[in-house]
Amino acid sequence: MTDYRAPVESHRFILNEVLHWERLFSSPEYAHVDAGVGDAVLNAAAEFIGGVLAPTRQIGDEQGSRLVDGRVITPDGFKEAYRQYADLGWIGLDMPEAYGGQNLPLVLQAAVAEMVNGTSVPFGMLTLMGRAAARLLIAHADAGLKERVVPRLVSGEWAATICISESDAGSDVARLRSMATPMPDGSYTVSGSKIFITFGDHDVTEQICHVVLARTLEGLPGTRGLSLFLVPRLCLHDGSPNRISVGRIEHKMGLKASATCVVDFEGARGTRIGAEGEGLKVLFAMVNTMRLEVAIQGVAIAGAATARAIAYAAERLQGGTPDRPAIPIVEHADVRRMLLIMRSRTEALRALVMEAAFNLDLALTADGAEREKARAAAEWLLPVCKACCSEAGFEVANLAIQVLGGYGYLTDYGVEQYARDSRIMAIYEGTNGIQALDLVTRRLAKGGGAQYRLFAERIREDLSAAAPSPIRQALESALVQLDHCSAVLVEHLAESPRDAEAGAGAYLALVGLVGGGWMWLRMSEAASPRQASRRELANFYARYLMAEAGTLQKRALCGAALFDGLSVEELSR
Ligand SMILES: Cc1cc2nc3c(=O)[nH]c(=O)nc-3n(C[C@H](O)[C@H](O)[C@H](O)COP(=O)(O)OP(=O)(O)OC[C@H]3O[C@@H](n4cnc5c(N)ncnc54)[C@H](O)[C@@H]3O)c2cc1C
User: Fold this and answer.
1) Residues 164 and 265 in one domain
2) Which domain CATH number covers 241?
3) Residues in the ligand 1 pocket, defined by CB under 6 Å
């Protein structure tokens, strides 16, 4: 089934009526942008994904990528779709003009990325990595490397990977063992085996730029000995094959079209990016771009699964009685419940991700203190969006299967693929457990809760301007609960950090729930009489989903002792 319909109307509403992205147009960076440009881009993207990309979703799942004689072969149509996408300039949508991009705001790129991922997440992954590597190089590479590589990544002539994981180093990158040795000419040779590398090889582009985290200073412990390298599949100076091979591709639950590779570097030539020993810090320019996009992937799957389930429920007839004909299942209260959870959660998170992207745009364009605030707001939202959206992607896809009943379990209807494809999103790009720790131990801890206070302040500003409504009431009370949790966790961080860690997952979920409520407040305030359904969805979110706030508060504050009562032996008995 390839009947995904791009949510253009929702994107347009969020951009124009909720975020008021026209605030960007007065800055010199985006003087060439206006609402008309936004509309044209959204419509063109919707047309592209419907015409060219849609057929690759099912074929990609059925055929998968294959390893043949040491090279990865992508499924039918994948290469051709990529070529068209690249030639139309989509990869460089938000990239600087100086490197061949179109220099459009990231928030618009986020909307386009949702459409692409709603159609094919593997395709979205491939294009994402080129963009993310380009951003990294623009921020940290020297001029020569930038000039050589970035325009080719932006045009899609070359692709990229991110090579962090090793068999003993997953969440804990300090354990990684790949080594880089300096050569007399200033380059490095890189050796080590990286695992789980997305599109570690493929037949879509000749050149693949591997961004590799490796150890240079053997004596230094932990992450301080790590540096970052660009290690191309074909050597940059003469195009000869570098010493890189793909040992295996993994058999996995979903994302079959994207090859997950073991990539072996055997003295491969590479160039250092950024200062020695600062590899992890430098890599964040790439990782942050990817985390935002994983959040977008989650929303994309949730949106696609919701649309499919609503269409099915409107047609499927069940539940008649001898004197009354069967009715569409969408009329049954329990099916309504599921569809409303799916729709209200998806739209809240779509707006939240776009709010994060918009703040990243403002962090480039706003003046003085506003710029700093925008950066802080985006930093706060990033782990929340990554974790909440990835979870929503899978949970909404799971509900879609339930709405379709037995048919949902069959491959013919395509919703089980949404569940399989989205399951990994809570794991890669830093597991959701790690996102929660990041939120609490870094972002909440920073300045004794300063980033949280900014988030809460912005919500209170909107609350004070809003008309009385269930969403206003629910948000006000959930915000008080979140204030309390934040204050207690800041205390825990100083006095009993394990208690803070124990509450981190529930705390992140509560921030996401409140963030979603904030978006519904703004969307319901912005809705015209013609868009009254948005107020109904806001009411549902307020009265049904926000009822979870009290439970999440209790869990966030439950303390580690509750988890530590059993020894490992007792737990496993
Ligand atoms: C399809 C796919 C694509 C991938 N693509 C890439 C890629 O392109 N490049 C790349 O480098 N990697 C990639 N990965 C690897 C991915 O990023 C890792 O799987 C992920 O970082 C988790 O590492 P791990 O699997 O070793 O799990 P572990 O780190 O062993 O974690 C297992 C569990 O323990 C928890 N945990 C671990 N440490 C802590 C802690 N300190 N505190 C609390 N809980 C903790 C985790 O949250 C998780 O629940 C990919 C993986 C897959 C499956």
Assistant:
1) yes
2) 2.40.110.20
3) 161-165, 170-171, 196-198, 252, 255, 260, 424, 427-428, 431, 433-434, 437
